Amino acid sequence: MASGQAGWANDPAVGERGDAVVILAELRVQGLTKRYGQVQAVRGIDLEVASGEFFVLLGPSAAGKTTTLRAIAGLERPDTGRIIMAGRDLTTTPVQGRGMAMIFQTFALYPHLSVRANFAYPLRRKGVASREIDRKVAAIAAQLRIAHTLERKPGTLSGGEQQRLAIGRALVQEPALLLLDEPLTNLDAKLRHDTRAEFKRLHRELGMTMVYATPDQLEALSMGERIAVLREGLVVQTGTPDELYLRPQNSYVATMVGAPPMNLVPATVQAGPPAPVIDLPFLRLSPPQAPAALEPGAELLVGIRPHDLTPALDDRPGPRFLARVQLTEPLGDVTVLDLAAGGQILKMVLPEAEALAYGVGKELPVRLVSEHAHLFDRASGQALI
Question: Is the peptide bond prior to 351 cis by the omega test (within 30 degrees of 0)?
Fold first, then answer.
């Protein structure tokens, strides 16, 4: 199905906020499951998306993102579960009656039609009057800053302009809910950056409810007001970007959110005195708290953000250890260093100018900001503190 055609604001719910008419598009997904043959794509998804929210589904390939979006849109019938928008149960409602539009990974534009005709196509299918079509096309083309391309064919547009056309063909239908399935996958790095900003601008101006699926944590963190992290067809944590970064509920979320990803180091709890201590391969730590799980013999993963490691160049207090630089990765204004310590490889991030002093093979003392360390049960991956 073409991008922007899974659409279809036939019967959106509306309300009032002051003198303005507001589309009510709060969304609830309850107990969603979907199987394809022997593959259980979705295993009980629960989501709550507020009206006007930019909500992101984050997860790797096969996590269940696309299946969830297609079920919300009505392109897939769930095996079990319900799709509720603005208080209406849409689980069995046909696609055309859901008041939604969906943008896919591929632009799926009509190459033989002009940009203007591509914009107008879904409106003509619904029998909208020509004058109203012209008005809506002109308005959305201006808003997306591609009004100058209306008489051209899609093949003559840049990748970014084609993506704006695909977005506009969905928005021109004035959907209550916009679903986006990895829409930046086929763009180069600069266009991805520019289009992320474009989505944020459109969301701010339109106030539309958006659900955006991506495997890219940078996209999720930079755009999402809240993020649901998916793994193997389940939601493992939902929260704001700050909540997911600062308080991951398990080691999976800890490594999915943050760049470079969190270092996870195996460790064992040893008896005090006076309190239990945590033995890492290169360091002994006193935990900031002593939950019941920290009993002698307990096996942990200690999570350390790369930004919480720094060269120990002075006598300030704090746990420190000796490491050797194995690899450097310059990234412009910062450099990522791979450090070898106790048989482990740890990533540390330094400003570019500071990192110049630490070439491959260089040995250096490293300080850990231990109060920022995360503790996870090694078997289950669940956070302990």
Answer: no
State the Cα–Cα distance between residues 230 and 64, nearest whole angstrom: 7
How many angstroms separate the CA atoms of 91 and 4, rounded?
21
**Three state DSSP letters for 344-377:** EEEEEEEEHHHHCCCCCCCEEEEEECHHHCEEEE
Q: Distance between CA 139 and CA 93 in Å, rounded? A: 30
* Cα gap 94→76, rounded to integer Å: 10
Query: Can you list the alpha helix ranges (DSSP code H) found in the chain?
Result: 65-73, 115-125, 130-143, 159-171, 189-206, 217-223, 241-246, 251-256, 352-355
What pTM does this model have? 0.87
Query: If you ran DSSP here, which 8-state letter would residue 2 be given?
Result: -
* Contact call for residues 265 and 259 (beta carbons, < 8 A): no
At position 38, the amino acid (one-letter code) is Q
Q: How far is CA 204 from CA 52, 53, 168, 173, 270, in A?
A: 9, 10, 16, 18, 52
In sequence order, the 6+-apart residues with CB closer than 8 A to the CB of 76 are: 34, 67, 70
Q: Residue 46: what pLDDT?
A: 97
Instruction: Tell me how crowded residue 75 is: count the other CB atoms within 10 A of its CB.
Output: 15
Looking at residue 262, what DSSP letter applies? P
Q: Which residues of the chain have pLDDT under 70?
A: 1-24, 288-293, 385
**pLDDT number for residue 188:** 79
CB of 13 closer than 8 Å to CB of 24: yes
Structure tokens at 249: 């509920």
Instruction: Give kind and range of the element (H or E) at residue 278.
Output: strand 277-280
pLDDT tens digits, 169-218: 888 888 889 999 998 887 778 878 888 888 888 888 888 899 999 999 99
| Cα torsion through 332, 259, 162, 66, rounded to 10 | 170
φ/ψ bin of 381: left (φ > 0), alpha (ψ from -120 to 50), beta (otherwise):
left
**83 CB burial (10 A radius; 0-12, 13-18, 19+):** buried
Judge whether 208 and 25 are in contact, CB under 8 Å: yes
Identify the structural domains of the chain with CATH numbers, from first to last.
14-255 (3.40.50.300), 260-377 (2.40.50.140)
